[in-house]
Design a protein that fits this description.
Helices cover 37% and strands 17% of the residues.
Length: 287
């Protein structure tokens, strides 16, 4: 009507790309930065475990780490140590300790924080003990108040609120087996559902989640592998990282990085428990 060739106009028009579809140029700056400055993409470091931290490249936001190891190897102690390291660098950490009560977990933290044995803490004067607890409280540590088997929806609601309001960066869940009740599904389906929901939560909220999963029953001292993680293969498939606290028949321990989606680098680091400090140290490193 106004002398406009509609066919020609449509032929010259650019189509609007779907909002969920990208092309190579959309990622140019990220790819260039990752190649020229790889350290910029490292995650939060664990300073008390420098070799392991270097191997893992730190705990990166948006990722899921599955952590396992035999009963009695020290999984909770090690994760307590890691959480104190992260909080000491002002990374906000949220604990979901379903197996160990929070007051017991905090007592373990206090032992590590003060470098004291339980007996030494029990001999400390009340005012000094309260001062140490107040000092520990200055670190950005948060705790879910749930204990024992808990409905997954309640957990996710609490995680969602705390991440949005407190800006939590790292979540530790100990352990998966306490989160698989109440859905009416069989145990394997419930576990897979929980893993999928935590995987999606980490990605959507750009936080790191460390999820403890007990291993299958294996002979004492036998080295654990990816197939040793309890449940279906979904846990190790969904995880960005899989870390196993290995313990042999004579009690020697290693931190074994069995999966590292970030750059594929795998390996292990020998560690020993230092009784006087109450922490794990990498073999050959003194403090």
């Amino acid at each position: 009507r106004q002398g406009v060739d509609l066919k020609e106009l449509l032929a010259k028009a650019d189509f609007v790309r779907h909002r969920d579809v990208a092309t190579v140029p959309d990622y140019m700056s990220q790819v260039v930065s990752a190649l020229l400055d790889p350290d910029a993409f490292k995650g939060a470091e664990v300073k008390s475990l420098p070799r392991f931290s270097k191997l893992l490249k730190g705990f990166r936001k948006g990722e899921l780490t599955v952590f396992t190891g035999p009963t009695g190897a020290g999984k909770t102690t090690l994760l307590t140590q890691i959480s104190l390291d992260l909080a000491g660098d002002n990374h906000k950490v949220l604990w979901g300790s379903f197996e160990m009560r929070n007051e017991v977990l905090i007592r373990k933290m206090l032992q590590i924080y003060t470098g004291s044995t339980l007996a030494q803490l029990q001999d400390t004067r009340r005012e000094n003990l309260e001062k140490s607890i107040a000092d520990l409280a200055s670190r950005p540590l948060y705790f879910l108040t749930y204990h024992g088997a808990t409905d997954m929806k309640r957990i996710l609601d609490a995680l969602d609120y705390t991440v949005k309001v407190e800006n939590v960066e790292h979540i530790i869940i100990d352990n998966l087996q306490f989160m698989t009740g109440g859905s009416g599904l069989n145990v394997w389906d419930r576990q897979d559902q929980c893993i999928s929901e935590l995987r999606a939560f980490a990605t959507h909220h750009d936080v790191h989640i460390t999820l403890v999963i007990h291993p299958r029953k294996e002979p004492d001292g036998q080295r654990l592998g990816l197939s040793s993680v309890f449940g279906t293969a979904k846990a190790t498939q969904e995880a960005d990282n899989v870390v196993i606290l290995q313990m042999d028949s004579v009690g020697q321990k290693q931190l074994d990085l069995m999966k590292n989606r970030f750059d594929g680098k795998l390996g292990n680091v020998g560690i020993s428990f230092n009784e006087s400090l109450g922490i794990f140290l990498e073999n050959g490193i003194e403090t």
